[in-house]
């Protein structure tokens, strides 16, 4: 009865269905791209998006609170009850405002990055763990001046020129407003994580959620990131 009531409510609003997505914080800016294609392919819809860590995503998949997730593939469940699709390799870059003094070459070493005033995500987040591994392998201690689980706070400090940061390209806003722009450098020898889609394989799923999954799987994420997010490297001032 609850499902029928929800369907009736959606129909009154002229909506074809609702899609519930769980996404890790560093991939949140992909959600508008996904929802745009879902609306185009499957019709007008409502959406409920939860920005949560990997471990919470898994529990919400099992409890059927979300239809599918966007998360790191190496942290996805390996059980047969989960369907997993790898989408793209996550490329992290060092980013600074345009008037910061960075090396002119398109790549920066971990040793050079360690000397800069860094704002990083907290140590419990997987992409931060990949960054820490890079510094450890290089044998250097980074100059971390801010740690936060808020991308918005890190972006704000970055745009004020107070810090530089290391983040996945897809974690930056799709558009940078105002006159202040960013320059970016790839990190030498960085081992990327892989981002993918995950859902429960054998659980009942609505027709709309099934169509939404098919749309999400078909998106060329590497091209979408290159087109809509910040370009990986800018070397000209």
From TrEMBL:
Highest taxon of source: Bacteria
Cellular compartments per GO CC: cytosol
Annotated CDD domains: PBP2_LTTR_substrate
One Pfam family of this chain: LysR_substrate
GO BP terms, alphabetized: regulation of DNA-templated transcription
Residue ranges annotated for the LysR substrate-binding domain, each copy included: 13-201
Family annotation (SUPFAM superfamilies): Periplasmic binding protein-like II (SSF53850)
InterPro entries: HTH-type_LysR_regulators, LysR_subst-bd
PANTHER family: BLR3139 PROTEIN, HTH-TYPE TRANSCRIPTIONAL REGULATOR YBHD
Protein name (Swiss-Prot/TrEMBL): LysR family transcriptional regulator
Native organism: Komagataeibacter xylinus (Gluconacetobacter xylinus)
């Amino acid at each position: 009865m609850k499902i029928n009531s929800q369907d009736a409510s959606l129909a009154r609003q002229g909506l074809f269905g609702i899609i519930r997505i769980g996404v890790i914080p560093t991939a949140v800016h992909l959600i508008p791209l996904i929802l745009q294609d879902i609306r185009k392919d499957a019709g007008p819809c409502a959406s409920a998006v939860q920005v949560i860590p990997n471990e919470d995503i898994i529990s919400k998949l099992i409890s059927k609170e979300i239809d599918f997730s966007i998360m790191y593939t190496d942290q996805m469940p390996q059980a047969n009850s989960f369907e997993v699709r790898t989408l793209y390799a996550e490329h992290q870059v060092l980013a600074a405002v345009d008037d910061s003094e960075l090396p002119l070459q398109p790549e920066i070493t971990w040793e050079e990055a360690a000397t800069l005033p860094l704002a990083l995500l907290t140590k419990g987040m997987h992409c931060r763990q990949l960054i820490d591994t890079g510094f450890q392998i290089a044998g250097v201690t980074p100059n971390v001046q801010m740690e936060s689980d808020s991308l918005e706070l890190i972006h704000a400090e970055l745009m004020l020129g107070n810090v530089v940061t290391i983040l996945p390209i897809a974690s930056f806003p799709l558009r940078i407003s105002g006159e202040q722009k960013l320059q970016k450098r790839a990190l030498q020898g960085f081992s990327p994580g892989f981002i993918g889609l995950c859902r429960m394989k054998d659980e009942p799923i609505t027709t709309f959620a099934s169509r939404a999954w098919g749309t999400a799987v078909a998106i060329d994420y590497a091209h979408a990131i290159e087109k809509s997010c910040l370009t990986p490297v800018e070397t000209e001032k």
